[in-house]
Automatic annotation (TrEMBL):
Pfam families: MIF4G (PF02854). This is MIF4G domain-containing protein. InterPro entries: ARM-type_fold (IPR016024), MIF4G-like_typ-3 (IPR003890), mRNA_TranslReg/HistoneTransl (IPR051367). Interacts with EIF4G1, EIF4G2 and SLBP; probably tethered by SLBP to the 3'-end of mRNAs ending with the histone stem-loop, it also interacts with EIF4G1 which is bound to their 5'-end. GO terms for molecular function: identical protein binding; RNA binding; translation activator activity. It is found in: Cytoplasm; Nucleus. It comes from Pan paniscus. One of its GO terms (cellular component) is Golgi apparatus. The keyword Iron does not apply.
Length: 263
């Protein structure tokens, strides 16, 4: 039987106080929790979706086993810390959704509250409302934001369904990435395609009409490739065929597109 999946989060770049804040927020109230936070050999902190006692990678000699109540920390501050770092670090933003999910679960089990989720969604809304200013100020920050909000949409659930409150904001961000001035920038095209790979199928189930409209823009951008690089054209064609195949990559398409990109 293989190891359960786990994601590692590089939080050692934070100052000591913030590291402790994040580690405490990530910890559930008992050692037999479903989420354990620990330090690995390479100095990274990881969220392991196993119980503490069964995790072979846990290092008791270096892990603080004094699990504290996640609700005892300022979870609104934690939400802001995670969003701030996600806007600066696109690698972090790609997987921060799992960290946020872990904190929400820990808070819910211990306190039955949703302070962190509320703070997270409020901050996402603030950044969403200022998205054009963010894009004008920092293209990387904008791409990181889109990556982050899509990641949150992918992980957060209400009654085992994606959060309806995030559907239109996520669509609006993707529509912005499909505008001609964005399609002329490979960073934005790459972000658009990656996020559609990740959440496109879920989004279409929530609102198929908007997905149809989005792909009209994408097809127009591909057919009228003024200013598009060859890589951007290839990525757009790939995502068009990916959706047409039922959000799946056929073996032939995988061989073609990945060989083209590698070349």
């Amino acid at each position: 039987m293989g190891e359960p999946s786990r994601e590692e989060y590089k939080i050692q770049s934070f100052d000591a106080e913030t590291q402790q804040l994040l580690k405490t927020a990530l910890k559930a109230p008992s050692l037999e929790c479903t989420v354990a936070c620990f330090e690995t050999e390479d100095g990274e902190y990881s969220v392991c979706q196993r119980s503490y006692s069964n995790c072979s990678r846990l290092m008791p000699s270096r892990c603080n086993t004094q699990y504290r109540d996640p609700g005892a920390v300022d979870l609104e501050k934690v939400a802001n810390v995670i969003v701030d770092h996600s806007l600066q670090d696109c690698v972090f933003s790609k997987e921060a959704g799992r960290m946020c999910y872990a904190i929400i679960q820990a808070e819910s089990k211990q306190a039955g509250q949703s302070v962190f989720r509320r703070g997270l969604l409020n901050r996402l809304q603030q950044e969403y409302q200022a998205r054009e200013q963010l894009r004008a100020r920092s293209l990387q920050g904008w791409v990181c934001y889109v990556t982050f909000i899509c990641n949150i949409f992918d992980y957060l659930r209400v009654n085992n369904m994606p959060m309806m409150a995030l559907v239109n904001p996520v669509y609006d961000c993707l529509f912005r990435l499909a505008q001609p001035d964005s399609l002329s920038k490979e960073e934005e095209v790459d972000c658009l395609v990656l996020q559609l790979h990740r959440v496109g199928e879920q989004l279409e189930k929530m609102n198929g009409q908007r997905m149809d409209e989005l792909f009209v823009l994408i097809r127009d951008g591909f057919l009228l490739p003024t200013g598009l690089s060859s890589l951007a054209q290839l990525l757009l064609l790939e995502i068009i065929e990916f959706r047409a195949a039922g959000w799946k990559t056929t073996p032939a398409a995988h061989k073609y597109y990945y060989s083209e990109v590698s070349d």
